[in-house]
């Protein structure tokens, strides 16, 4: 293990292969397909998040990487070596469990040292490494405590220290922050990121919490029904969703269905049900379909009491008339529901930039909702 | 609500109930036995002296109390029979408990690894022998183990032995009977702790590089220690005083303390010595319990 962790992945596997290649992996439980012919490459040093609703297969995929489940088909190449049928205790991969799975009969020190002892590391080195890890996760003075005598946040840190103790090439994290309360989660997120950068490890985190995935990950793989539906950076995922499902799953979004009436100069004109005619940026590589939906994020919509003047000429800005139907004050922003005259409902989110609520809109007030064609995403229905 | 109000009157009564039970059905009878153990055998009805007669006045009562003596205990310590039967009881019970653990642990472990829906069935199968009388089951073993019994027939048919083996009236037969009879008491507490073991802990051990054997040794076994302790106590304590199994299945050349007690009481009609034997037995049995209690308390203090 020592020798392995000192050679860089690139050197031992050749430049062509990524650290981890998941190649057409499939897994069924009875009649249920948990993971369906899934392929994915992960580079060394990457922080990758698998995001999806519960039952989408993300945990099964993670457990196959750890070795707790055997794939029925496909290969899992770690540094070019197929580990798909290798038992978990031989894999140079470690996992941090959702429940932490700390050994209740061992104290903090022995929990962290467990993996090092199994690897046959000398006593002197174990002592040094454990001290280093304890300092890394700020658990000094708690070495002799048992898991039941620790707080949730402390347990999480023990689990993390134990998982990185063997310096795995790949660290798997199953919902690492799910058991923590909101305040602690934010600070732990930052710590996790700092730790990953410091140790230069490759992290794969499974989560159902999109804020967590957005904050932590370099790239996010969105899973649904055993398949990866989109793999992208957090920004791409949010601003350029490739399907209606992803657009609706990640963040909040307004979607209106319609038909493409005209295409010119990179603009599409879409006649919608309930929101009139909208102008939208034509997406690249969009096929020859007529039935589409137009998606727009609530924070991209602006409101005003009078229609804004359009300086750039004929109708490049989308303007929709309507009435405020509901207002939700959320602190940093307010969420407005607008019943459009055309019949559709739109949600707009406006930052509460000023403390005095001068420009807030009230229920029943007439407004114009307006947004740029560049902010519209046209998607296949 | 203040802390004082937690113990309302009905709750206090309920807390007293188990103590009342212990006093009435353990402490008071034990007082009788203790008094009997300090008396002398007599050719009378009842067959011992002195007899406390509250109607005979204060003087008679004082005389009766001063007539009590430790003579029976001196006899127990001076006569080899009692010491050797006590020692044999301890070694037999310890050996049987070790055998029970060796056989019961794999069974309990396998049960806890069964799919959840099969576990209740396995549990019933472990308990089902209790539906037949204990005595009948021990007699059934006599039948199996005797000269032309089932076991010898099977062994002869399979040509494992060329002539019938003497099983009955040996220590082997006694251990077979003991292991068979006490197995559920070993399996159930072991199963209870093993089935509570979080499977994620074993996955974590494997993930950290422990082979299946190491996972068992470093995780499963230490975490099942409470079950091992409970099962061992549940078997060891009644086994020390066991009378029926050694009497029916073992030879008569060495006795367990339960058999000695029986002899004193029914054959010799020496109630006081029998009572003294019973007190000694209790002392022997209390010792491991006190040690166990100390051990557990120290562990609680530590954590």
Please give a structural write-up:
The complex is a heterodimer of chains A (381) and B (303). The longest helix of chain A is centred in the middle third of the chain and has 18 residues, at 182-199. Chain A folds into two domains: 2-239, P-loop containing nucleotide triphosphate hydrolases (Rossmann fold); 252-380, Beta Barrel (OB fold (Dihydrolipoamide Acetyltransferase, E2P)). Chain A is an alpha+beta fold and 381 residues long. In chain A, β11 and β12 (267-272) form a beta hairpin. Mean pLDDT of chain A is 88; it is low at 1-14. Chain A has ten helices and 20 strands. By secondary structure, chain B is an all-alpha fold. Chain B has a single domain, classed as MetI-like fold (Orthogonal Bundle). Chain B has 14 helices and two strands. Chain B has helices at 9-37, 58-66, 71-78, 80-113, 119-127, 134-145, 150-157, 171-196, 199-207, 212-223, 225-240, 244-249, 257-267, 271-302, and strands at residues 40-41, 48-49. Chain B has a two-stranded antiparallel sheet with strand order 1-2. The longest helix of chain B has 34 residues, at 80-113. The radius of gyration of chain B is 25 Å and the shape is globular.
CATH class of the largest domain in chain A: Alpha Beta
Report the order of strands and helices of chain A. HHEEEHEEEHHHEHEHEEHHEEEEEEEEEE
CATH superfamily of the largest domain in chain A: P-loop containing nucleotide triphosphate hydrolases
- The percent range for helix content of chain B is over 70%
Number of strands of chain B: 2
Radius of gyration of chain A: 25 Å
The helix-strand sequence of chain B is HEEHHHHHHHHHHHHH
Radius of gyration of chain B, whole Å: 25 Å
- In total, the number of strands of chain A is 20
């Amino acid at each position: 293990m020592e020798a392995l962790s000192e050679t860089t992945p690139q050197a031992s596997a050749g430049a062509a292969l990524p650290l981890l290649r998941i190649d057409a992996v499939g897994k069924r439980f009875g009649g249920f397909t948990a993971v369906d012919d899934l392929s994915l490459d992960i580079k060394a040093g990457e922080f990758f998040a698998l995001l999806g609703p519960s039952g989408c297969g993300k945990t099964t995929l993670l457990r196959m990487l750890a070795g707790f489940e055997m794939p029925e088909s496909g290969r899992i190449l770690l540094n070019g070596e197929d580990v798909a049928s290798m038992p978990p205790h031989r894999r140079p991969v470690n996992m941090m469990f959702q429940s932490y799975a700390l050994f209740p009969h061992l104290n903090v020190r022995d929990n962290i040292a467990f993996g090092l002892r199994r690897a046959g590391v000398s006593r002197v080195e174990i002592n040094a490494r454990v001290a280093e890890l304890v300092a890394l996760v700020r658990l000094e003075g708690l070495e002799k405590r048992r898991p039941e005598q620790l707080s949730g946040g402390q347990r999480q840190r023990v689990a993390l220290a134990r998982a990185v103790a063997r310096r795995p090439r790949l660290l798997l994290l199953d919902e690492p922050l799910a058991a923590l309360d909101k305040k602690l989660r934010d600070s732990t997120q930052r710590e996790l990121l700092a730790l990953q950068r410091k140790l230069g490890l490759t992290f794969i985190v499974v989560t159902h919490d999109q804020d967590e995935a957005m904050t932590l990950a370099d790239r996010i793989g969105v899973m649904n029904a055993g398949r990866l539906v989109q793999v992208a950076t957090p920004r791409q995922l949010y601003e350029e969703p490739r399907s209606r499902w992803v657009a609706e799953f990640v963040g909040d979004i307004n979607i209106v269905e319609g038909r493409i009436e005209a295409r010119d100069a990179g603009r599409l004109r879409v006649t919608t049900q309930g929101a009139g005619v909208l102008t939208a940026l034509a997406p690249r590589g969009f096929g020859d379909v007529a039935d589409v939906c137009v998606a727009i994020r609530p924070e991209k919509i602006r409101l005003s009491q009078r229609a804004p003047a359009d300086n750039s000429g004929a109708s490049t800005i989308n303007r929709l008339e309507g009435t405020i139907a509901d207002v939700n004050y959320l602190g940093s922003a307010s969420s407005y529901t607008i019943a459009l005259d055309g019949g559709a409902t739109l949600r707009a989110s406006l930052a509460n930039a000023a403390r005095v609520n001068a420009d807030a809109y009230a229920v029943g007030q007439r407004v114009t909702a307006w947004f740029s064609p560049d902010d519209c995403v046209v998607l296949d229905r | 609500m203040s802390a004082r109000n937690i113990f309302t009157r009905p709750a206090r009564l309920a807390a007293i109930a188990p103590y009342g039970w212990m006093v009435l059905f353990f402490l008071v009878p034990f007082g009788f036995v203790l008094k009997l153990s300090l008396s002398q055998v007599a050719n009378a009805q009842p067959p011992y002296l002195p007899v406390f007669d509250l109607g005979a006045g204060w003087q008679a009562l004082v005389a009766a109390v001063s007539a009590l003596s430790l003579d029976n205990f001196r006899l127990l310590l001076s006569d080899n029979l009692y010491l050797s039967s006590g020692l044999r009881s301890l070694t037999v019970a310890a050996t049987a408990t070790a055998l029970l653990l060796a056989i019961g642990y794999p069974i309990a472990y396998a049960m806890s690894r069964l799919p959840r829906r099969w576990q209740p069935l396995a549990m019933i199968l472990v308990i089902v022998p209790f539906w037949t009388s204990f005595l009948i089951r021990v007699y059934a073993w006599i039948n199996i183990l005797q000269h032309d019994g089932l076991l010898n027939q099977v062994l002869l048919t399979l040509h494992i032995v060329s002539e019938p083996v003497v099983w009955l009236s040996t220590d082997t037969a006694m251990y077979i009977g003991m292991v068979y009879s006490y197995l559920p008491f070993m399996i159930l507490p072991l199963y209870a702790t093993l089935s509570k073991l979080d499977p994620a802990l074993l996955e974590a051990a494997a993930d950290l590089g422990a082979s299946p054997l190491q996972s068992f040794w470093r995780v499963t076994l230490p975490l099942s220690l409470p079950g091992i302790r409970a099962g061992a106590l549940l078997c060891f304590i009644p086994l020390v005083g066991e009378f029926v199994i050694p009497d029916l299945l073992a030879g008569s050349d060495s006795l367990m303390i339960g058999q000695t007690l029986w002899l004193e009481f029914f054959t010799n009609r020496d109630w006081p010595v029998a009572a003294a034997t019973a007190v000694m037995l209790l002392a022997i049995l209390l010792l491991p319990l006190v040690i166990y209690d100390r051990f557990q308390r120290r562990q609680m203090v530590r954590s």
